[in-house]
Amino acid sequence: MTPALEIFAQTIKAAREKKGLSQRALAAKTGATQSHISKIEAGAVDLQTSSLIEIARALDLELMLIPRALLPAAQALQRGMEPEAPSPLESLVGESLDRLARKVEAKARRSNASQSDVLHTLTNTIADLRRLRLGTREVDQIQRLIGQIMHALDATTVGGRLPNEKHSITEASQSLEAYAQQLRALRNAIAHGMIDSPSAPQGAYQLNEDDGHG
Fold it and tell me: What is the SS3 assignment for the chain?
């Protein structure tokens, strides 16, 4: 395999995987066979220009001839467009958001109309938070609110039990709405670089280990 073919093969494979396409799916888009795509990614095929253009367009790529002197600038631009890998902290909060999203989805399937708005707000906020770059302070606040929201979701389930059984399901629903608004406000603060802004008011009551103390 020549160096040029190796670079091309790696580029095609990376672009295919980024789009979530299998070799078979890419073959269907380009009129090729899966075995042919496999050979291309192995660098075992020297493609004709027409076939190369067809595959590139199927992967949302465009072929362009540029002066060699501009190649470093083009490569730097491409690297700048690639998303950064999530930090360990972002991976941690991502797992918590995944758990919350599953609980919200399960709750939505059996909720009444009065809860649909708050669940919709939570779903949108979770999706937004996944796209933000987060630091230690942001992760700490998000994790705290996720824990409170998870408890509130459990407490608003018919037959659920609140801490020390001191609060009604109606109160839990009010607290869930308050926590959802706090999470939305936190999302907005992070997105606009205003994380040091005063936090939103606390919910109707606390669904955490400090409940009933002080």
Answer: CCHHHHHHHHHHHHHHHHCCCCHHHHHHHHCCCHHHHHHHHCCCCCCCHHHHHHHHHHCCCCCCCCCHHHHHHHHHHHHHHCCCCCCHHHHHHHHHHHHHHHHHHHHHHHCCHHHHHHHHHHHHHHHHHHCCCCCHHHHHHHHHHHHHHHHHHHHCCCCCCCHHHCCCHHHHHHHHHHHHHHHHHHHHHHHCCCCCCCCCCCCCCCCCCCCCCC
